[in-house]
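Following up on my earlier thread - several people asked me to post the actual chain instead of describing it. Fair enough. Here it is, all 858 residues.
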Amino acid sequence: MPGENLSRDEARERAALLSVDGYDISLDLRSAVGADPSDGPRTFRSVTTIRFRCAEPGATSFADLIAPEVTAVSLNGRDLDPSEVFDGSRIALEDLAADNELVVDARCAYSRTGEGLHRFVDPEDGEVYLYTQYEPADSRRVFANFEQPDLKAPFRFEVRAPEGWTVWSNGAGRLADGVWRFAETKPISTYITCVVAGPYHYVTDTYTRAFDDGTTLEIPLGAMCRKGLAPHFDADDVFLVTKQGLDFFHDHFDYPYPFGKYDQAFVPEYNLGAMENPGLVTFREEYIFRGKVTRASYEARANVILHEMAHMWFGDLVTMEWWDDLWLKESFADFMGTFANVGATRFTDAWITFANRRKAWAYRADQLPSTHPITADIRDLQDAKLNFDGITYAKGASVLKQLVAYVGQDAFLEGARRYFKRHAYGNTRLGDLLAVLGETSGRDMAAWARSWLQTAGVNSLTPQVLLDAEGRVAELAVLQEAAESHPELRPHRVAVGLYRRNGEALERYARVEADVDGPRTVVAELAGAEAPDLVLVNDDDLTYCKTRFDETSLAALRAGLGSITDPLARALCWSALWNMTRDALLPAREFIDLVLRFAAKETDIGVLQMLHSWAESAAVHYTAPERRAVAGRLLAEGAARELRAAEPASEHQLAWARFYARAAESPSDFEQLTGLLDGTVTLPGLDVDQELRWAFLDALAAHDVVGEKELAAELARDDTASGKRHQVRCLAARPQAAVKAQAWAQVVESDELSNALVEATIAGFERASQRELTAPYTPKYFAAIERVWEQRSIQIGMLVVSGLFPSLQESQETLDATDAWLDAHEDAAPALRRLVLEARDDLARALRGQACDAGAAE
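Reply from S.P.:
Thanks for posting it. Predicted structure:
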């Protein structure tokens, strides 16, 4: 059999043959506690009964299971020899009847990689916590099943757990005679079933909604985290956003929440942001804030809560047939997260964050060699795993925002309502959604889909302004361009804004919406307007494009970017300038100069934090090598200056403090950070809490100011799971050859570290100030990655291949080494080649940016 990597063709063949009536799953998790086994992985017992039908009696198929051992298999009362039917990932099923019952008794392994049933031991108190994470295909690591999204079924779980534990699953549960039994679910896909178990801190609330027909919906709410995080858990705010979201979606979807209770679990060592398991959403516990954070962090958490809630309808109630149409859930949830954040919560400026942060992710992904249409060609599960990317999420959401502008919000939401009612508990393809949107809007959705969903790449829109003799606009046109590799010119619904200086401010004085199509579109409505200082061709961020500027607009931005009065327009200009820097159209030194001159005027904290990240990237990757020292010094000086000038106790002060720690490079910087740590230096209002202490220590460790002794002392001060991750990162950041060798061995040559500690070690390994120290690992990387990909789980493989690529060895030699590996490994796993190709593209882009910066005039 072909192994773990289920193909689309196999899934379609199985779906045509089988339909599933239900699952009964019994898990015994009492082995989670106690001494480690003497040999082999720690396992638990999993007994699964599947009732299913076969359209062709006598046919052959298979069930999915990844387990160290299968002790018994029974098909329709007939015992099968596990050694003959189980190959480690599949159970062969022969001579199927019209109605079938499969019973599988297995020993499944607890996970340390966040895939399947993850087992975490809290270093603070020794308590054990379990949770499951399956997407796209890891439920087969916990129970036998048909692991594909279109074989939906009801599930009944029962769980035996250690005494004193609580267990949660998708349905409501109760403990009787030592067994937790859970209500049967609605028909759902395997990948969104869920179990959470352990001594979690659990808080409850209730949501009540009265509908116009006189009925009332009551939803039990729960929120949980590790006991060690309970003092920091602001469950009231989580429940507030949850209730606001449920109200918003009930108002707009006209389909009551269908899955009973609504628990939200914040769990340790989580690979994702969150997962939309119906009735039991799981989140990474970093959304519980141990120290002071900015408003942007709370906004991001609210966005994720609402994103996962939107999945209850887009993805859980109605599910894509195969991962080709992953966008049917992820793009919609990403759009709805921001749409609901703006419409229902205190984060009314969330579209600014979307324009500045989320779309930056999409623009990068859409210019990689691995770019793909939003409706992608997903051949197998490895393709599916890698397609949870900036295109499926952020570009898809951006395109939906364009769709709302194209068909109108009312038609869009009415289409969604019909879609839910027509396909409830079923599976869909692209055409199913387009059909209802065509009905409600009267628009040609097929043509729209061809341009926006079925082609790849991002267009650039540039204004062209011609003035008449009196200095007024004679003609304003929008020029559209596309990359040679993806030449599609799309129809765009855009707002074009004209700005001019009014005293110290740059203010908009004219705006029109227009349909841009083809290489050149004249916006006739702007003829006769007064000459603008700045033209913004995607004002209000209606479409998905790279915005460019004419020379007059660029000059206005150079002179007064910080004086643009509208925060969204200002964020769009920053985003456009960053794209120009990445495209080697604007020298990195100029972008850094703009940040140093205008970032302090930025009122939106999320935009400011993004500017810090971009400025750091510009200095590290896009600045000419001979100017890196100057760029680094300027950023450190600017960060120190703005930290001192920031309003005491403000979130801007906190943001500048964190940026200063990352930019610090001189003895005086390190003296300042050391003083802030030990209290000999104070800044009015700056609370150096535990999280900020680790940020300062990270910088000091990377520059050899503190060592193993100081980091051990800090861990003793913060002897928690979070503290351990911070310490591991700082230890790997120390600029010593022996440290790098140890970190490399721990990640590449061993599988002892958990997923979270692998990630922390990689984060510390390669630092911009240590290029020469890590240079010897370039050949080691290319020698190791195929073996790592073959031997480790896909999650760890992705962390290693992407995280340890020699991205800081920015030279033609590194590019040549990458090309040599690609040429010599044409038959390597396509997902592995994709990751290397993406890293190569980032490297080539950095070299072009450095050449642009080197050629710029001083």
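The mean pLDDT is 96. That should answer part of your original question.
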